[in-house]
Queue: 3 jobs
Job 1
Amino acid sequence: MVLMPASRRVTDGSESSPNLEFPRQVRERIVVASYPFRNFVVDPGQVSTTSSKIELKDFAAHVGERFNINKIEPWTGHFPSNDRKYIDQFRSALTKAHATVANIAVDGEHSPYAANREEREEAMAFSKQWIDAAVTLGTHSIRTNIPDAKDSKPDLERAAATLSEVVEYASRHDVVVNLENDNPVSEDPFFLVELIGKVNTPWLRALPDFGNTLAHFDYDHAYRGLDAMFAKAYSICHVKEMEVGRDGKLVHVDLERTFGILKRHEYQGYLSMEWDSPGDPYAGTRDLIDKTVKYLS
């Protein structure tokens, strides 16, 4: 089995901090996300046993065959279950494929800043379930999302209080929690950076996505946001070249500029290929891999 980099707790006399050892070769840092392949991976809601689609637990083997990459980032929407039985099966499939999970992209429905306390507790419990899954799979990070709250605008204090408990739980299991600039209302990059600063622990980090903010805001806001996110990034980022914008038109990422921001912050973590535009995700992912190697070699 290909092992994930060791996560060692380093203490400075006050609290622990993660210390992952990332590969130095660019291709060894590349990860393939399952989300772009949502039309090819079995939908957990399907009941047919005749589907020709890929089962999530077999996705790593498939990625190895198609791209010669041995690290994946599964999306929780593709998991048929997060109970121990299925996660153990998933881990066995990873071992057989000589592959690992670099990060789990966790999407829940409950907001950690909701005014309703029960909803905040639901958000907290959901994230903790996936931290447990990460431990069983042998991965050292998850990305948890921050959905809109129906009863509140983004609230820094409530979000920080909820995430502080999630991250404290994660740190006891050597799991880093990442926040991604995705939802333009609740996950604006500058709000996330402020939130990370408020929680103030090395176990809560940013996951910069190359295209998400660009799809909703102007270039100045998007690239300043990416710069702020990479200053807080640690273990994983999402590489994209295009994204469907607000008007339904494609926006194009300036890869040279974005990789320049990444290098300026001396980012050493994983790079997850997340092709998210019309077209063949296989060809798109292969092209993203080639361009990532080009810009970082």
Job 2
Amino acid sequence: MSRILYIRNPAAFGGSGPAAWDSFQQLWPDAIDPQDVLLTERPGHAREIAAAAEGFDVLAAVGGDGTAGEILSGIMEHPEPRPKLAVIPGGTGNGIARNAGVFSIADAVNALSGGRGRVFDIIKIDCQFDGRPAYRYAFLTGVAGFTAQPMIRPWMKRLLGSQWATYLGTLMQLIAYRSPSMNVRWEDGEHSGRTVMVIIANAERVGGGSICVAPGALADDGELNVSIIPAISRLTMVLRVFPKIPTGEYVHEPGVQYFPAKRIEVISD
């Protein structure tokens, strides 16, 4: 049997994350050693726990995409052979779990107890954080420029759901956002000028599976799917581009570039 470390985020799903853990324990066939369960206390803590974990075959994220993403980055700090990542969905959108075929607590129990795993590509991100070089890993997407995340609060996800919370956060962010100048380079192309956002995707859908950021993207094809949205007016963004993002039709809008790549560089002040 694999030895599993459960890393729980009690703040997941606006503080309702413990319910997922209770459901998992009811379905899990064996007793779980309390020493194999650790709680996160702050942002970044799950990554620290995962990076320091020794003697475990599997690190299980009990929470949402943020928790799973942090644990993924922590796992990548281990030398090979690295522990595997498991996801017990306890967040609002659970996009990572969905892309791994885990749609419920019962799915997580079946995958873990049966030792069923899959191999996925991941995105390595080298960036600047607080003025210092930093790196992290992502499963679904990386974004440069516009993002709704700063405006989204846990209560919004809890009351509205992941999809509508994203919509509301996007509208709020549009009011204050000003497109920066970017220089974007990839294997056989370059883009320069004011840019709303660059989306680097490893999966077709995010936001609980409701938002199609990268039509046709596969998480195991060895490629990124990149969207570049040039500077446009707020009115055009609200009336034309924004409504088409959930269906993926936004990639056909004038000026929007959408293409596969293995490596991309974004430089901006």
Job 3
Amino acid sequence: MKDMIILGIETSCDETAAALVSDGTKILSSTVFSQIRAHRPFGGVVPEIASRKHIEALVPALDDAFEKAGLGFDDIDAIAVTMGPGLIGSLLAGFSFAKACAFSRGLPWIGVNHLEGHVNSVFLEPAPPPFPFVALLASGGHTTLYHATSHTRMEIMGQTRDDAAGEAYDKVSGMLGLGYPGGKVIDDLAAAGEPGNLSFPRAWLDKNAFDFSFSGLKTAVKRHIEAAGALSEKEIRDIAAEFQAAAVDVLACKLIRAAEKKDCRHIAVVGGVAANQGLGARVRKDADAAGMTVHIPSPGLCGDNAAMIASAGHWRLMEKGPENISPGLGADVFSKIPPLL
């Protein structure tokens, strides 16, 4: 039987991505065009700039993905595209483009929940987890725990009540004058710092529940910096180390507890913050003590990418069939984002 090849398109925030994936598990090509340089002067993503950059980059990204795979439109079986959540202008750019391609080529298309894509990113690695498993999705916009029982069925167990983990990293990086984005620079500095030299709060909330909060931690860092005045390089490293320790303590602990509550022996960490070395090391240590297996995608699959959208689209097409929304963009289009059940 011929492998099913899905073209994935992702434009939920500030990466323009296209990928070709076979049978939901094998990446034939993956292209990601970053907009970091365009947004860095503003300390975060500017929605208007992001939308315009997507319009400029979509055709080159698609061409690059096809060229890398040595394939063309005649070789693909369907198109999967992110329908949300995300920045509305960015989503419209990719969504409109994908639907136009599908309509003009007579191809079925599948709308994908961006978060479902992140959870499915672990199935693009050689040894994915069996179902069921518990996944921590930590990124610049989301911090959520899921109990995944299939590729398309995921129960939310807890989520952030304020800032997402990645957003907190970016804001602390800004406070320290380290620029945007902040995830990698904080992670690198934390590895060279001494977290025990300071004490920032761990926002456990209800220890028997699985929601998160990072606003108090962020405020504690801000007050410490304001009180300290001019900071030495060592002090900056120690602040980064203690901030990361405080965030990672809560993320790792709640992930393990959520898996124990569901009697799952398999856990995953996905999303942009999954590339954080400190988080990965702590989760692996705690999981080993609890007798659990850990699944973390390679760094290129942690951030926003179209391969995960194509993978999720494959499984959704197999289970649910193609979309039946008309080619036009109606006002209710984004109310039809596939839910995480």
